[in-house]
Amino acid sequence: MVKLNGEIAENAAGKMLRDFLLESGFDVGRIAVEIDGSIVPKKSWESTPIADECSIEVVSFVGGG
């Protein structure tokens, strides 16, 4: 069971992180991702598989002034 921002993410295990993020509707140009407490560099997303039982946190950048 993979968790995404505290919610169960069905069918995420085994997918590559970038593919999963796109399928989940994230704007990959405006987010940062942490897996099990470690920041995952954006350049690694295409080669980072999602392990079963991991916890993924996604933070979106919002502009303002």
Automatic annotation (TrEMBL):
A Pfam family per the record: ThiS
Tree of life domain: Bacteria
Xref: NCBIfam families: thiS
UniProt protein name: Thiamine biosynthesis protein ThiS
UniProt organism field: Treponema saccharophilum DSM 2985
